[in-house]
């Protein structure tokens, strides 16, 4: 096994002058990138990174490159350039604000940080304070210092040799208690997953992917991009999801991937018709539960059965509904069967397997499963069983014929529009607001986001709180998708006999809020 980029590169078509990516949101009309452009652009960035001559840390870990930029084809080339240079990619949601970025940067200690030009002031301060040696900018319109500097570099580069176990990316995730943890994914984790999916989803020579997801998470960065690159398939690239823009591209495409919110929004547009989908081959959904209602409406409207799959930052893709008829049928309400090479088991609280149809904890092992959390050996130990299975924190059951159904989560996590929100983190921000005694953050059903974040806030003795002001303060401090859509001021929180907040009662009480 060599570098992940080299393996993806082997999938590029022989004729490198063919179009690889159509950047449809470019300000002056679409931009067309050939496979040669992708190869050369990523080589130049890799050469720039290598020219910085950054030594690995004392622990031998290659330098980290933290990236918080808007989506662009150049941002994808940056990711590929980091892989080629043998460095470690650390993508950050571009909604994160200063306090959030500060945590990631101080925890991961990147040597290089790349940010949007508009954020250079505060990001560079944070980055240099945390020991970064270089801060570059990369804008949506091919602007910024990264490309200026890379332009002077040679456009050929031999990817640095990497073994299957070598670190390729760190994805920050979970934080059921405490702060976010960096899931360490290796070249081998990512490549094995991409190869399995290429076969299981039956990628075809003429496939064309509509890429409308952000590229700072597993779904858009790995599943979608790796899939198309490894298969040498063209991408129709949208920097931002817009149902109209996706529908306009459907007649030219064969594959689409989305979180359930994307499907809900597409269904709300009258332009989604059977005719528009005539050339399509496959619609894939994941990152959050797809409601059976959405699944059925999609079938009725388009004639296509959405393929639902299940994954995590720590594991990439774990299970999938079948694509090829020989593998079975796609079943709504299930996340399909374990992917080839991946084992999934459902266990009780005592670590014994649950019988079919009985609910338990979902655990997993396989070549796709990460090696652990960045500099958190204790957390890593807690999340793996003694016999080496990773505890997903999801709760589910097997159907008699081997389909897995996810019924809930044992981790305190809200998934809103495909983004994870950790109630403990939002509560800690709320609790810092003067006049707040305590708070509880829960997720309630939402027709667009699947789940919406809401908060119940308890004032300190004598304090007057205003829900609108709390929301405004949070918006100024944390990523917008984490900010509660509604805040309730209440005299107290429901607690059980042990004094633990009964979040299930709050969820029940506000269940119909957005119905
Ligand atoms: C945006 N907003 C959200 C939100 N996204 N609120 C709750 N949940 C979300 N997901 C808020 C913003 O803060 C803002 O609030 C307002 O909505 C408009 O912002 P926007 O940026 O214009 O939103 P929009 O473009 O409509 O974004 C919605 C979305 C986006 C669904 C397109 O959230 C999205 O791309 N989601 C996909 C996430 C994803 O890729 N997940 C994969 C994780 S990988 P205000 O108040 O300021 O107006 C993973 C593993 C696996 O889980 O299995 O795949
Ligand atoms: P993340 O940490 O962002 O990678 O989110 C991973 C979590 O998303 C999983 O642990 C699941 O809880 C959830 N998830 C992913 N895919 C699905 C799915 N198809 N159905 C239900 N939940 C899902």
Short structural summary:
The protein has helices spanning 4-9, 35-51, 73-84, 98-108, 120-129, 145-150, 187-200, 218-231, 243-249, 260-267, 292-302, 377-383, 423-431, 467-477, 503-509; strands spanning 19-23, 31-34, 64-68, 88-91, 112-115, 134-137, 167-173, 181-186, 208-211, 234-237, 255-258, 282-285, 307-312, 316-320, 337-338, 343-347, 360-365, 372-373, 390-398, 404-409, 414-416, 419-421, 436-446, 450-459, 486-489. It is of the alpha/beta class.
Task: Note down, in words, how this protein is organized.
With 515 residues, this protein is of the alpha/beta class. The chain has 3 domains: 4-240, Rossmann fold (3-Layer(aba) Sandwich); 331-409, Roll (Luciferase, domain 3), CATH 2.30.38; 414-509, GMP Synthetase, Chain A, domain 3 (2-Layer Sandwich), CATH 3.30.300.30. The chain has helices spanning 4-9, 35-51, 73-84, 98-108, 120-129, 145-150, 187-200, 218-231, 243-249, 260-267, 292-302, 377-383, 423-431, 467-477, 503-509, and strands at residues 19-23, 31-34, 64-68, 88-91, 112-115, 134-137, 167-173, 181-186, 208-211, 234-237, 255-258, 282-285, 307-312, 316-320, 337-338, 343-347, 360-365, 372-373, 390-398, 404-409, 414-416, 419-421, 436-446, 450-459, 486-489. The strands form 6 sheets. A 9-stranded mixed sheet has the order 2-1-10-9-11-12-13-14-15. The N and C termini lie far apart (51 Å). The mean pLDDT is 97. Adenosine monophosphate (AMP) binds at residues 173-174, 218, 286-289, 308, 310-313, 335, 392-394, 406, 409, 415, 420.
